[in-house]
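Entry details:
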Amino acid sequence: MTMRSALRLIPLMAIGAAAAFLLAGPLTSLYKSNAVAGRPQPSASGTIDPHASPTSCPASLPMPKTATTVAPPAAPALPFPVWVNEPLGAKVRAGASSSTAQLGILSQGTQATADQRAPDASGNVWYHVKQASLSGWVRSDLIVTTAVHAASGFGWSLMLPQGYQVAPSSDPSLTTISKSGDDLPFLILQTSASDTLTVQLPAQLRPDVAPVADHTTTVQVWSYTPITEQVSRVALNTCKVTSAWARPDQGWPFMSSVYVEKKYTKTHSYLFSFFSADPNSPLVKQVLDSVALS
């Protein structure tokens, strides 16, 4: 190659080097982007959160196709403590049958010790209990095996499990009950002297997403029956409850609504709005069974 030919190649080599330099940045950036998207890096805890954080508010998760069923706890081994849940008290009888003699009555909230278990002819379970000098048989649906405490308000009273508390409120017609550590209330209880009530929903729910009906059933509240219980799924606002995806309700708790009309009580109407992970929550039933109304 002559000196003149070599000099002609120098500009061409410079142009090629510049083009390669300019392309290197975008290609490297594209490669890095694809690598991150295709292979998520471990978080500080060593696990990867598969649920994206909300990018706009309000936001909610897709409704799960199946519900999480919460099994009631099994009865502990005898002997064990029990608490009376029935608002009218539990009758103590001489035998495991309602046809036997009544020996006394244990008032609501009383703690006793169960030391025997037996069924009656109808299949009802009875417990032999001892409380001070009184001992005898009590039907199992009148008692609970976890500690409870009393709560009361504007014309109502009920029993709550330990860890559930009434939140302070300046409005006696609106009561919020929550479990310690939970972002969502367990119960909102509304009272009115009129025949109508405007439903008050927690701020943790999305007001723009309509409840999805699940089922209805008939319950008894106090001595009033039949009362309709309406169960629906409602959407949590994941911008306010950021751990919604990790909850047992998967971001869609069940709302169990029970309305007791004024025609029953003659003085007030009541609306119970429960929120739980189970469409047939044993705890909701337990609290409803303990309610006394005026």
The first helix runs from residue 3 to 38. Residues 1-54 have pLDDT under 50 and may be disordered.
